[in-house]
Write a structure and sequence with these properties.
single chain, alpha+beta, Thrombin, subunit H, 2 domains, six-stranded antiparallel beta barrel, globular, binds 4-(aminomethyl)benzoic acid, hydrolase
């Protein structure tokens, strides 16, 4: 079952959105983990860079169209996961999704607060590997800037925030139970950066992916518990005030021995140069 991660993220969410118009042929129900993903509600002002990706056309209005997370790294630049923008998710190339929006400054998805900003351009990392999940990031350009105060700096390679043991906060509107209880209000969970070999052992290569220390980051708690889950994908993992990870994948949510895997932001920063330099103006689907 290749690509189970992208499926795991969006299909259950689409199922949860009763108004979803897509026929979910072959959709599997969310993994029924018994573990509660130990987060807590926060106000978006506590992590103002956290945005929701929304398409009401695709996911219906019951959760304002939310289907993934994202993070503002510049006033008009939002990072998210590549697997959030797959054809299986959006039904076509990302730039063809007419109502793809970023919702910023909103804690309660249904409150109407904050801003809904249309996406001008969506670029999926051309190096994304859906088998291992390596390079799971995409770059969205917004039609209107977010306030500077809503932007989080990216941690570069060698930043001490990547050191195992560092406490980090992951935020999103994803599943709170591992069983399909998607949050209406923004939640966060406190996790620790874990040593690469913890994830290398947990994920040597299997149906869900393979841990690649150069482009991924391991986070969670050895005992299980607090973790990101379906619907949080693309959202931020922040430590010491800097962005270190994007929610990417894992086996279930909050399970002991199965930490969360994040896209390593230092690898994104590195790729971004090549990306905008090499691909700017290209209309090729990636
Ligand atoms: C997902 O399917 C997903 N527990 C995201 C994060 C994690 C697992 C799955 C980490 O999008």
């Amino acid at each position: 079952m290749r690509r189970s991660v992208a499926r795991a993220l969006v299909r259950p969410l689409a199922l949860a959105a009763a108004a979803a118009v897509i026929p979910l042929v072959g959709a599997a129900p969310a993994a029924a983990d018994s573990v509660v993903v130990g987060g807590f509600p926060i106000d978006v002002s506590q992590a103002p860079w956290t945005v929701a990706l929304s398409s009401r056309d695709r996911f219906g209005g019951t959760r304002a169209g939310q289907f993934c997370g994202g993070v503002a790294v510049a006033p008009t630049t939002v990072l998210t996961a590549a697997h959030c923008l797959g054809e299986d998710v959006l039904g076509g190339p990302p730039n063809a999704a007419r109502d793809l929006k970023v919702i910023a400054g909103r804690t309660d998805l249904l409150s109407g607060k904050g801003d809904e900003i249309a996406v001008r351009d969506a670029r999926v990392n051309p190096g994304y590997d859906a088998t291992t999940n390596a390079g799971d990031f995409a770059v969205l350009t917004l039609t209107k800037p977010l306030p500077r105060s809503a932007v989080v700096p990216m941690a570069g390679a060698g930043d001490p925030a990547y050191t195992p043991g560092t406490e980090a906060l992951v935020s999103g509107w994803g599943d709170m139970s591992g069983g399909g209880a998607y949050a209406r209000r923004l939640h966060a969970a406190r996790v620790h950066v874990l040593p690469d070999d913890t994830c290398a052992r947990a994920y040597p290569g299997g149906p869900e992916g393979a841990y690649r220390a150069g482009s991924m980051l391991c986070g969670g708690e050895a005992k299980g518990g607090p973790d990101a889950c379906q619907g949080d994908s693309g959202g931020p993992l922040v430590a010491s005030g800097r962005l270190i990870g994007l929610v990417s994948w894992g086996s279930g949510c909050g399970r002991p021995g199965n930490p969360g895997v994040y896209t390593r932001v230092s690898a994104v920063a590195r790729a971004l140069d090549v990306f905008s330099g090499g691909r700017a103006g290209s209309d090729e689907p990636s």
